[in-house]
Amino acid sequence: YWRALVLNKMERYDEAIQAFKEADKLKLKYPDLYYEYGQALYASDRLAPARKAFGKSVINRYKTAVSLYYMGFISQTLE
User: Fold this and answer.
1) What is the pLDDT averaged over residues 19-30?
2) Which of 15, 27, 65, 69 is the most buried (most CB within 10 A)?
3) Nearest to 5 by CA among 25, 27, 30
4) Is the pLDDT at 79 greater than 90, yes or no?
């Protein structure tokens, strides 16, 4: 998780995405995990998976309004 955050801040999104996937598999319970994962996916133009990650962020009640905004914007872009 921490590695993923650092990679994300360094704009090394492909590596960050892999690290976020590992954190998700380990079922780590960080409130911002899916929001940050969504950010990395969005920055890498992987919009459908980003929308799902932001949806999980909403479920976790982390940055709900911003996550919903991203979900809406991505949906508008994809459809």
Assistant:
1) 95
2) 15
3) 30
4) no
- Burial pattern 11-46, b for ≥16 Cβ within 10 A else e, equals eebeebbebbeebbeeeeeeeebbbbbbbbbbeeeb
Quick one: angle between helices 47-59 and 64-78, nearest 10? 150
Q: What amino acid occupies position 17?
A: I
The position carrying tokens 């999980």 is: 56
pTM exceeds 0.85: yes
| pLDDT tens string 25-64 | 999 999 999 999 999 999 999 999 999 999 999 999 999 9
- The sign of the torsion formed by the CA atoms of 43, 19, 55, 67 equals negative
Indicate the burial class of 10 (C-beta count within 10 angstroms; 0-12, 13-18, 19 or more).
exposed
